[in-house]
UniProtKB/TrEMBL annotation:
SUPFAM superfamilies: PLP-dependent transferases. Keywords: Aminotransferase, DNA-binding, Pyridoxal phosphate, Transferase. The keyword Membrane does not apply. CDD domains: AAT_like (cd00609). Residues 72-397 form the Aminotransferase class I/classII large domain. This is DNA-binding transcriptional MocR family regulator. PANTHER family: AMINOTRANSFERASE, KYNURENINE_ALPHA-AMINOADIPATE AMINOTRANSFERASE, MITOCHONDRIAL. The keyword NAD does not apply. It comes from Microlunatus panaciterrae. Its cofactor is pyridoxal 5'-phosphate.
Amino acid sequence: MSLPEPVRRDTRLDNYVDRYAARAHGMTASAIRALFAVANRPEVVSLAGGMPNIADLPLDAVGSVVHDLVVDNGRVAMQYGSGQGEPMLREQICDIMRLEGVVAHPDDITVTVGSQQGLDLVTRIFCDPGDVVLCEAPSYVGALGVFSSYQCDVVHVAMDEEGLDPQALTEAIGAVRNAGKRVKFLYTIPNFHNPAGVTQSLERRQQVLAVAKAADLLVIEDNPYGLLGFDGEPIPAIRSLDADTVVYLGSFSKTFAPGFRIGWVLAPHAVREKLVLAQESATLCPPVFSQFAISAYLAKHDWRSQIKIFKEMYRDRRDAMLAGLSDHMPAGTSWTVPEGGFFVWVTLPPGLDSQSMLPRAVTARVAYVPGTAFYADGFGSRHMRLSYCFPTPERIIEGTRRLGEVLEYEMSVNETFGTAIHQGSFKPYEAPGANQT
Ligand SMILES: Cc1ncc(COP(=O)(O)O)c(C=O)c1O
């Protein structure tokens, strides 16, 4: 039988528009996605993407691990597995978390398809439409997407250079509850924040936890970057301070490789039971082959030294980014100084708008992510996220030089013609109707 060649039917007309579930309405493609196709061209220095840089991964060692796995244990590794995740890997995960002071039993771990799925499962089991989730201002764009797809109301809480502000957290909880809304949890990224680049001190973690406990609030601690600190020992995880109030999300994406898509959730036992049921209905089981491969890699390879290699490579790139910013940013620009991870958060001089400026930046062959991507409420236009994880140090410096020229140009245009931009700064939560009285 000869079938016709498939034709790509690229139309914006959607005949199903009135049939989608309400939760699908929050799923919209970002307005900047189209620009990123251009931003990925080789002549553009992309300081936009947050992809881990796995150039230094020892492919021969990983290759031999995978080869041995297929030959010696392929029929198990390629079969369905446990919905909770493979016991051997869960034990190894417990050893890894000890590096950040977390004492956990393997039975309290659910393996997930990256920590992104951990976020999805946690939100799925806790949140009804209209429930409030508290997040830092700004917060991880992938988490905001999950919260929106479960129709949660995101309320942002201010940060300073030490991360989430406990006083602002207290006020946000009070304001939301006074408005008669239910807060389900606080979502926080304590280490090398994506996108803000800041880290909570131990004291700050204790304060945040104390506020959460006093308010009987669950804390979701998302920690994919914790072992990628450039100096000193890791700061103890919030989960190391309290096993009952904290649900901890971990990932192998940044310390090994994201393509295996393996992360985990460590949760109080009753929550863990619900997570496994949710995992079974979502995937039957997390990818068994990936779990066996990571488990064998951890057992046979010196993964601690590999993380050290990653850290040194990221530290060189961070240094290049900071040097480039100091040399090329116009007066009035400021930025955070990350002590690990991938990201710097830039605050632009007044009157500049990172979103409207992006097409001009891409024309000048440099790309970034506008700050608005990291807020659920449209704020953030005076900020941008710069990633230093992927380009070489030389390219990073060249990228900041190009960006500096774009900012200078924008400022001179504003000086000549004035600016029509009305930039609100981040405002704490106001109950609906509160400003009408
Ligand atoms: C803060 C944060 N959480 C979660 C994720 C998801 O990571 P993965 O699903 O690859 O584990 C990312 C990825 O960039 C992230 O930055």
